[in-house]
Amino acid sequence: MVDILILTAGGTIDKIYFDAKSSFQVGESPIGELLREANLTLDVEVRSVLRKDSLEMTDADRALLRQAVEEATAEKIVITHGTDTMVETGKALAGITGKTIVLTGAMQPARFRSTDALFNVASALTASQILPAGVYIAMNGRILDPRRARKNVAANRFELLTES
């Protein structure tokens, strides 16, 4: 059995620039390659579930991710995901017992030289090993509960919701 299962769902972290189209599109995830280059000593399996921008994700897509998590034999699961709807997916995964599930992503594609992808994935891998069962978001050096988190688009970061 693997130490950690990494499920990829798309999002900015997996985007590729298509010069002929002058656009970015979600492509094959570079996560496995990034982890090999980082000399990772954990036994991980990377499995693609979706290749979507998170703004295009539907409830059916979230149900597919939930099913993949529920059916996985691994107890530690990292999900790479687009940042725009990561909180919604985190909430959709609530209630799964016996597993530590950590969602992460990037503000810049992993293929860029200047990206937060490797740091965020490394944070998620570490969090999945030390946190109790539950659902978490690992972004910007923080571990957040998706029920109390939001993406602050103006500040380009994730943060705790403020009590009002």
From TrEMBL:
It comes from the Bacteria. InterPro entries: Asp/glu_Ase-like_sf, Asparaginase/glutaminase-like, L-asparaginase_N, L-asparaginase_N_sf. Residues 4-155 form the L-asparaginase N-terminal domain. PANTHER family: 60 KDA LYSOPHOSPHOLIPASE, L-ASPARAGINASE. GO terms for molecular function: asparaginase activity. The active site is at T12. Substrate binds at S54, T83, D84. This is Asparaginase.
